[in-house]
Amino acid sequence: MTSSQPFQFDPQPIMRRAIGLAKKAQFQTDPNPMVGAILVDQSGTPLAEGYHRKAGSPHAEVETLKSFKKTPKGSVLFVTLEPCNIFGKTPPCTDLILDKQVKTVIVGCKDPNPKVAGRGIQKLREQGVEVIVGVCEQECQDMNRVFNKHIVKKLPYVTIKAAMSLDGKIAMASGESQWITGCEARKDGQRLRSQHMAMAVGNKTLFADNPRLTDRVSESPRQPARVVFSSKGNIPSDSHFLNRTETQRIVIAGANIAPEVRTQLQQAGVTLIVENNEFPEIPSSLAELYNLGICSLLVEGGAQLISSFINAGMVDCFQIYVAGKIIGDDDAPAWSGNSNIRSLAEVPSLTFEKVDKIGDDLKITGFLA
Ligand code: AOF
Ligand code: ZN
Questions:
Q1: Which of 64-68, 137-141, 265-269, 300-304 shows the lowest mean pLDDT across its residues?
Q2: How far does the centroid of ligand 1 lie from the alpha carbon of residue 119, in Å?
Q3: pTM for the full predicted model
Q4: Per-residue pLDDT at 244
Q5: What CA–CA distance (Å, rounded) separates 59 from 93?
Q6: Average pLDDT, integer, range 134-151
Q7: Which three-class secondary structure state does DSSP give residue 84?
Q8: One of 61, 63, 275, 300 is an active-site residue; which one?
Q9: Which residues have CB under 6 Å of ligand 1?
């Protein structure tokens, strides 16, 4: 944190409260970030607060400052993300802050959006506003991992979800797989679906399990778009996937998809992405999904699809559920496979963020290091 002026109050608890406000809109602001703001007086007493509720709605600063014609002398605005200086769906927050004559702005972290990226801070400073950057910086950054990725890379944030035995198996050699993890862990896993804009499975999983690919446990689910990676595009005619729903259904197929299959999918209302190669490539498929407005993708399996994502180095987060069961059979399928890497130094490795106990199972959250 860079500060020229000591305050009569500790800024961190106020910023933490602003983070809490921002998180009230968790999973509701896509493609925008979560942002919270609090206006305090010189002694740190709150005067007003607000948060960004959803894309297209007023920004956190607007929600906070709207009732003031001019803010009281010496007021300090806390905001978890750098105020924007751009016209998006809404006008620039920097202009509002100047108009309301805020004396000091305390920013959690810079806006990674290349259109902002420090220019909001610069503009305020040029106009004589004192700006302090970096209070609870890491927490402010971490709450917007999805936004931070997609706005810079122009690709969806990818989470792999897998449920397995302690020895990494996802089924018995016979194919029996229901259920390895318990009911609580399975519910938790289903909630992840509402937390992403889309979810994906491979064709084999569709054939084997005929999954519904919906969240049936959250109180107010946000059903994700459903994506199937299928080189031939041959979706079983009795699959749940072909039932029309409000959410978008997408098939990512290879270049050799038969013309009649193409027509069938289109007639079923499925959005079809046809890749240039025989098998869909992960980077180009993700770029196509981003073009369709998908900022976060949950990949649920099977092992082949998961391996393709890992091998392409295109995974951001892992949510791994581990049951205390040991299947112990070489013929039982593992949760990932097909790697060409032969040296331990080169294997993908995860940084573990946390481990939770859910029912009788473990849930490991990690990031590709
Ligand atoms: C802020 N405060 O509360 C948010 C910001 O289309 P718009 O007008 O909503 O602008 C979206 C961009 O504004 C978004 O990509 C990000 O850079 C910034 N979000 N900025 O000052 C807010 N939500
Ligand atoms: Zn703004």
A1: 300-304
A2: 13
A3: 0.93
A4: 86
A5: 7
A6: 98
A7: coil
A8: 61
A9: 32-33, 35, 52, 55, 59-61, 81, 83-84, 88-90, 93, 111, 113, 116, 151
